[in-house]
Amino acid sequence: MNRREFLGILALGTLLNLEPFNNIAFAQVNGSSEGSELFANKEFSYQALRALSKTFSSCADIKECFLAIKNIKDNDTNSWYEGWKTQGDRLYSLAEEYYSQGFLVSARETYLRASNYLRTSGFFLGANPKDPRIFDNYTKSRTSFVKAASLFDPKIESIEIQYQNTTIPLYFVKASSDSTPRPTVVMVGGFDSNAEELVMDWGFGAVKRGFNFATFDGPGQGRALILQGLYFRPDFEKVSKPIINYIVTRKDVNLKKIAMFGVDLGGYFAPRACAFDSRIALLVADGGVFDYYSSLISLLPPVAKKLLETDKAAFNKAMAEALRNNTTFRWAIHHGMWAFNASTIADFFLKTKPYNLRDIITNINCPTLVINSTNTFFFRGESKKFYDLLECPREIINMTASEGAEEGSQVGALGYAQGVIFNWLEYHLNKIS
Which end of the chain has less Cβ packing within 10 Å, N or C? Predict the structure, then answer.
């Protein structure tokens, strides 16, 4: 390594410890809205708000969340884990007690809250995929949700979809117990979501409006990643096709009224699915992701971009040093390495290159709604770029601070977001005869 390269590494380490990388919510947003900060660490604040959001769907309670929060030391991921896990474990035990006593509604509601808090507790464990707590924590969170699912009427169905030589887990939430063919929303999660959370955030709102709701853990997400070792893949149509193949076999699905809804990185996956599948009548991209790699490297200072191109070993060394003092950035990069099956930091960045819609965006023909959250950090500018390049009937809606909906995935404003998105879907589905 020559002197210039060495100085480049030092410069990168310095730059990555300054704004915008110091104490940012790298995974989703550039901090929580003014007045909603729960921690000085922006990602802690965002993730706590993410858990609290579920009060809208009765999958969280305010004081329970604050009991967890008050026991968490800012920027301390172990205390984060313990704070939320204590609440999750307590409620899981309480739900079991309710169930054994025959109080099934109380058991169902308590299982859902336990599942939410356990998911939240494990969030930062993804910075070290070898941490044994990941498996145990996720398994208990999912078990709690599945127990709740069995107590709905009709029950939330848990289905295994054949995929290559294994299966993909899918939840199907019926709008009604009868077999009347109904509009169906198929939801695709993002970088760090799981199917259980998507049912909580969006599924219950969908069925209230007469939609069936289906969601699943694709490669790189939830059970598929944690328990099955399936990693993200750019050709998502290979994942979505067997999902839609199953959906169209159901008698309770109106085959002309299937909508696909992608959130976060799902704003790449869902459009990709639509580009290859004419059975999908409507698309919602919240928000749209046109080019993941260009969005990712735009977060790097120039010296880092140059090192990535010219000296991957130096890039890895400099990035590793920069990550040591940044909880958020460290989590995002290491979770990305895990979900993309990347061996190094540079490998993670480079493995995102194929995740773009450059050659296929004009193949999307169905009416499309693009959601642009104005405080998104990770995919900043991507929704507008995606919208501008679409050639199908399209609409873009900005989610702003004036509605409290500016955060990535509209965390903290799910009621407003559901109104906007489901109203759009209902209007366009009603136009299909």
Answer: C
pLDDT band at 34 (very low <50, low <70, confident <90, very high): low
Of the pLDDT bands very low, low, confident and very high (cuts 50, 70, 90), residue 18 is very low
SS3 for the chain is CCHHHHHHHHHHHHHCCCCCCCCCECCCECCCCCCCCCCCCHHHHHHHHHHHHHHHHCCCCHHHHHHHHHCCCCCCHHHHHHHHHHHHHHHHHHHHHHHHCCCHHHHHHHHHHHHHHHHHHCHHHHHCCCCCHHHHHHHHHHHHHHHHHCCCCCCCEEEEEEECCEEEEEEEECCCCCCCCEEEEEEECCCCCCHHHHHHHHHHHHHHCCCEEEEECCCCCHHHHHCCCCCCCCCCHHHHHHHHHHHCCCCCEEEEEEEEEEECCHHHHHHHHHHCCCCCCEEEEECCCCEHHHHHHCCCCHHHHHHHHHCHHHHHHHHHHHHCCCHHHHHHHHHHHHHCCCCCHHHHHHHCCCCECCCCHHHCCCCEEEEEECCECCCCCHHHHHHHHCCCCEEEEEECHHHCCCCHHHCCCHHHHHHHHHHHHHHHHHCCC
Q: Cα(185)–Cα(280) distance, rounded to whole angstroms?
A: 10
- Percentage of residues of the chain with pLDDT beyond 70: 91
270 closest CA partner among 391, 355, 349? 355
Distance CA 287, CA 4 (A): 40
Angstrom distance (rounded) from CA 239 to CA 232: 10
Question: Which residue in the block uniquely carries the two structure tokens 């848990």?
Answer: 158
Residue 217 pLDDT more than 70?
yes
Q: Assign 25 a pLDDT band (cuts: 50, 70, 90).
A: very low
pLDDT in tens, 331-354: 999 999 999 999 999 999 999 999
Which domains are seen in the chain, by residue range?
154-291+361-433 (3.40.50.1820)
* Residue 173 contacts residue 199 (beta carbons within 8 Å): yes
pTM for this model (two decimals): 0.92
**Calpha distance 156→134 (Å, rounded):** 25
Contact status, residue 45 vs residue 60, Cβ threshold 8 Å: no
Packing angle, helices 104-121 and 77-100, rounded to 10: 170
Q: What is the pLDDT of residues 303-322, one digit of tens each?
A: 899 999 999 999 999 999 88
